[in-house]
Write a structure and sequence with these properties.
Elements: H1 8-30, H2 37-44, H3 48-55, H4 58-71, H5 86-90, H6 96-101, H7 105-123, H8 127-131, H9 137-162, H10 174-184, H11 187-196, H12 201-216
Length: 223
Amino acid sequence: MSTAPTTRAERALATRRRMVRAAYDLFCQNGYLGTTINAVAEAAGVAVPTVYYTFGTKAALLSESLGAAIVGFDRWREPPREPIDMAEFLDWHEWWADFETAATAAEALDLFVTHGAAVLRRVGPLVAALHGASGDPDAAEVARVSEARRVETYRTVVRAIARKPGGLRRGITEATATDIVVALFSAEVYQALAVGRGWSPKRCSAFFREILPAQLLNPPRST
């Protein structure tokens, strides 16, 4: 059973999360340009100045909506400090500890793909808003930084997998493996399958769990 926030900090965090979720829903429905701060405030049940005081700009709201979609809306706190510590940011994922302690490359990749597919499912509906924000320099910077962080996250994941028993497929470098994950394991691809082709989340996840090990790992030894 959930309990209502009691301290001032807890109430502030609950309000922040409510505004971020409202913004996410509106960005997904109406796009970046079609979403207003007034609409976010109304949907979140707060005053317009509260939104401006907390976030400053609509682009900052987009950034936090994306961040919350990545780590989970109930785990979102506030943007990490710059320059971002990737190790600290990855710790926000509740599955990251299991990934780090996975016994083999295959087990680690399966954990990453299974939980990562859930992230793509949440991020996917924001794709149109991110692409449609290119006319706003601040929002365009959000999209650029987000993509840079995605690449760095995948590079970190690949590096960890490469060092586990089983490692990467023979003849494939960490750089090439990272390129493959960046190209295949994206919110755009997920949306193309889920929305464009009507695939279920289960089928999307199964697709990624089949294609990425085939591309990155050595085939299992026959017995």
